[in-house]
């Protein structure tokens, strides 16, 4: 992992467990580490020379802000370096890179449109005293276009990576590439050219994608031919969380059913987390800090995987079972890593060392789950057109739009003012103090594990300036918060008013059963008893609710309290509830609710997980009946985990050959030879057998499910030491004697 260089003249000083080497210049700091007593299971390369990291970041910044940095306001005036966007999207694999590209194009187009319309609106306001123009408009019954509500979208930094030598050509000649202004103007889009390591994909095998990702991440960046990779690596891996890199939110977008994205995404996440966590244990003295012009001023970051799950219950199309197995492998791996990081308490009885924590890292803080089945449910919800007549390209476009909506509601909820043009808020008249923001630390503390998304939006009336809804009047201008919340947890469907897809991203149970439960819920005045017992709601540990409002629209306290009531009643065991109010980032009123941890108990999640375990772990006698299916359900429900029974049904390691129609033992030496030749250091060699999931991975995944299955919280009760204090109403005899008339003799 360490990159060691020999300085011309140096002196050494202690640096915690490391050594600090100072070259002739006092600001040139090189950190080296002695060989650890317990070798790390991770061999990721991390640049340790701070000056090199800063130089790479400056080079990347110059390419991202090429236009802005060449616009000089005056000669001899030193301009401050622009900050990186607070958000970065990393699209991996064909599916992930396409979605990330769609998000970038969507935001870029929307921003250009709204800026153009907003400037035109300002021009119309300046020309409102033009009497002849007004007379012509009245005479010809020409109505001026309605007032444009400014929508201020931040533009994230977008990284695209695929094990395909023609990824640049694919993007250039895609539908987005036809609009040459987008690729020319959007400098925040960067392509990770990884073809020198591998250029033929991973053959729909996640273990191969994972192994190739390790080769890429274990190789020193100086040995890459691609010039941009060094800058991208410093941005994504080496500098996350430090002062010089202002990005605090990272989204890794990928398809769980493929090979490249499913295999690479977790490795890229682990490399970033390993570098980030290593910095937390790098304690330096004040003298060392003062010797640096740019130090590792450390700040929290939040990373999330956005996982696209394959179709499961589509009766019209036979889905490839390999997609289910690949997705199940990713879910099993993630739950095992999440259990080790968050719940494994074996080390509580002994002293915890830094290297113990670095062995328990997880790839992301959270993993958002979005099912491909949302498009099928949306089709079924609209009976006006048969499902077979739906344009596939249009459906993919709407699916990407659904994902884009969720991403950018989170982005705008934590966006800082540096993400916007300095004149945005002044021109729009938006008071930034009215916005309740979620920073990266809020998300870090609130979201962990598998996460599902509930989304809905409504069109609010606009007559120039929208009046505040009346509190006690149910006229048409009043927002129906009950209906908005219901649509957010409903099966995915089209909103014809907004042309958006609403609903929950992952169904709690099978669609027919869930649809019937929702009908009872709505027909009984939104009584939570019809949904609350579903594990999806009952075992949720935390929710984050983001309300996005158009400019000048005021949300009443009654509506906000109704929303809180719905969340409290439907999610009775949440440890934490967070709210964010975003103003001016949407043309419509939208509600996004992020549901943490309990989605792992949904039917789709368990189906994919068990499909992988059954195919790649089960012994022969348990592969073709439902005995293992029923056993895993019992393992989750039982008071104690029967490990001996589990061990009797499963093999010690996964068998990758079960999803490949070829000889695994012929493929294995080919990729290991590639590893040896590219890395060139036998000490860093790792066999592909070492990254196979083991029986312990399955055990940890089941332990995580058992933990969430049993999650509940105690309710706060009033405690008093004054139980013996009597009030007059509690003493009826005294009251009666006081009111009883006196008897006369």
Automatic annotation (TrEMBL):
InterPro entries: Tubulin/FtsZ_GTPase_sf, Tubulin_CS. Residues 1-21 are annotated as: Disordered. It comes from Pseudobowmanella zhangzhouensis. This is Tubulin-like doman-containing protein. SUPFAM superfamilies: Tubulin nucleotide-binding domain-like (SSF52490).
């Amino acid at each position: 992992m360490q990159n060691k260089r020999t300085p011309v003249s140096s002196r050494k000083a202690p640096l915690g467990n490391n050594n600090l080497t100072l070259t002739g210049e006092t600001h040139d700091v090189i950190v080296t580490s002695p060989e650890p007593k317990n070798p790390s299971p991770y061999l990721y390369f991390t640049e340790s020379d701070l000056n090199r990291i800063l130089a790479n970041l400056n080079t990347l910044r110059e390419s991202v802000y090429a236009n802005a940095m060449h616009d000089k306001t005056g000669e001899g005036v030193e301009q401050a370096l622009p900050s990186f966007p607070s958000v970065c999207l990393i699209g991996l694999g064909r599916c992930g890179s396409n979605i990330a590209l769609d998000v970038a194009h969507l935001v870029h187009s929307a921003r250009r449109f709204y800026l153009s319309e907003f400037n035109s609106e300002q021009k119309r306001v300046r020309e409102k005293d033009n009497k002849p123009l007004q007379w012509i408009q009245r005479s010809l019954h020409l109505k001026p276009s309605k007032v444009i509500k400014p929508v201020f979208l931040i533009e994230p930094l977008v990284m695209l990576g695929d094990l395909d030598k023609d990824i640049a050509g694919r993007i250039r000649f895609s539908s987005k590439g036809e609009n040459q202004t987008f690729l020319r103007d959007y400098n925040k889009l960067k392509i990770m050219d990884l073809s020198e390591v591998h250029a033929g994909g991973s053959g729909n095998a996640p273990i191969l994608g994972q192994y190739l990702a390790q080769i890429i991440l274990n190789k020193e960046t100086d040995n890459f031919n691609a010039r941009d990779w060094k800058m991208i690596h410093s941005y994504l891996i080496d500098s996350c969380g430090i002062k010089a890199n202002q990005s605090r939110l990272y989204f890794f977008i990928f398809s769980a059913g493929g090979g490249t994205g499913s295999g690479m995404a977790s490795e890229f996440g682990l490399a970033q987390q390993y570098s980030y966590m290593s910095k937390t244990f790098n304690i330096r003295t004040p003298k060392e800090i003062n010797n640096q012009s740019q130090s590792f001023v450390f700040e929290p970051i939040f990373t999330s995987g956005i996982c696209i799950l394959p179709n499961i219950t589509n009766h019209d199309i036979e889905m490839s079972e390999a997609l289910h197995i690949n997705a199940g492998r990713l879910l099993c791996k993630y739950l095992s890593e999440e259990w080790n990081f968050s719940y494994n308490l074996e080390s509580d009885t002994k002293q915890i060392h830094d290297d113990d924590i670095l062995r328990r890292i997880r790839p992301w803080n959270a993993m958002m789950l979005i099912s491909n089945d949302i498009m099928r449910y949306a089709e079924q919800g609209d009976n006006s057109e048969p499902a077979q007549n739906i344009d596939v390209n249009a459906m993919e476009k709407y699916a990407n739009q659904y994902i884009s909506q969720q991403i950018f509601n989170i982005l705008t909820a934590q966006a800082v003012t540096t993400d916007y043009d300095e004149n945005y808020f002044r021109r729009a008249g938006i008071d930034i103090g009215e916005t309740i923001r979620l920073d990266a630390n809020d998300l870090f503390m609130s979201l962990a594990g598998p996460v599902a998304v509930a989304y809905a939006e409504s069109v609010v009336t606009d007559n120039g300036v929208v009046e505040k809804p009346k509190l006690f009047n149910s006229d048409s201008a009043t927002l129906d918060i009950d209906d908005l919340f219901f649509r957010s947890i409903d099966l995915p469907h089209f909103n014809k008013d907004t042309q958006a897809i609403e609903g929950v991203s992952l169904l709690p149970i099978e669609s027919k059963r869930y649809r019937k439960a929702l009908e009872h819920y709505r027909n009984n005045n939104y009584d939570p008893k019809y949904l609350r017992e579903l594990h999806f709601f009952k075992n949720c540990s935390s929710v984050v609710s983001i309300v996005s409002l158009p400019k000048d629209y005021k949300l009443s306290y009654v509506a906000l309290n109704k929303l809180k009531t719905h969340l409290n009643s439907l999610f009775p065991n949440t440890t934490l509830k967070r709210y964010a109010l975003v103003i001016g980032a949407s043309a419509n009123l939208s509600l996004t609710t992020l549901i943490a941890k309990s989605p792992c108990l949904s039917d789709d999640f368990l189906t994919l997980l068990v499909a992988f375990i059954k195919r790649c772990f089960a012994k022969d006698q348990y592969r073709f009946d439902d005995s293992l299916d029923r056993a895993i359900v019992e393992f989750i429900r039982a008071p104690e985990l029967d490990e001996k029974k589990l061990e009797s049904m499963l093999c010690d390691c996964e068998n990758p050959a079960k999803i490949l129609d070829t000889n695994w033992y012929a493929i294995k030496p080919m990729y290991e030879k590639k590893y040896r030749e590219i890395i060139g250091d036998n000490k860093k060699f790792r066999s592909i057998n070492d990254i196979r999931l083991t029986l312990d991975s399955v055990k940890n995944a089941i332990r995580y499910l058992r933990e969430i299955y049993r999650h509940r919280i105690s309710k706060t009760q009033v405690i008093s030491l004054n139980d013996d204090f009597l009030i007059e109403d509690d003493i009826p005899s005294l009251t009666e004697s006081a009111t009883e008339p006196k008897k006369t003799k």
